[in-house]
Design a protein that fits this description.
Layout (H helix, E strand, L loop, with lengths): L9 E7 L7 H24 L2 E9 L6 H23 L4 E9 L3 H12 L10 E3 L9
Parallel strand pairs: 1-2, 2-3, 3-4
Helix pairs in contact: 1-2
């Protein structure tokens, strides 16, 4: 179908949770969600239709409350990806890629797959490359 969202070029939105952030609750959760909303609005308004791979890079676990905040950020972004996928299904195709810091090769491979012509039908999926949790430092 001409103009189908599956034909749109894949754009990558990377949300990197900075382990040195002094206020991760505000930045990782609120900031990540706000940035994602802005990027989605920009992608859809500029092209009319968009395909996005949202990559969330989570820092290594450190045994502190930051681990729970990182999980909260992932849950918030995942919820937004699912909601926007349902609400804007005819204009926006989104998928979520979760990765630990240092897993660049796995992220590149997953994004390359999502950019391929056979992956246009995948929407609202989560590709969890963290294998449950990032390693401790």
């Amino acid at each position: 179908m001409a103009g189908d969202v599956r034909d749109a070029e894949l754009q990558v939105v990377e949300l990197r949770l900075d382990p040195a952030d002094p206020d991760p609750a505000r930045t990782w959760v609120g900031g990540s969600v706000c940035e994602l909303v802005e990027r989605c609005q920009g992608a859809v308004s500029s092209a009319g239709r968009a395909r996005l791979a949202v990559v969330v890079v989570v820092p290594e676990r450190d045994g502190t409350r930051r681990d729970a905040i990182a999980l909260g950020a992932v849950a918030a972004v995942r919820g937004l990806v699912h909601a926007l996928t349902l609400e804007l299904h005819d204009r926006l195709a989104m998928n979520l890629v979760l990765a630990c810091a240092g897993d660049e090769r796995a992220v590149e491979d997953t994004v390359a797959f999502l950019a391929g012509r056979h992956a246009g039908w995948i929407r609202g999926a989560t590709f969890d490359l963290m294998e449950g949790a990032c390693p401790s430092s």
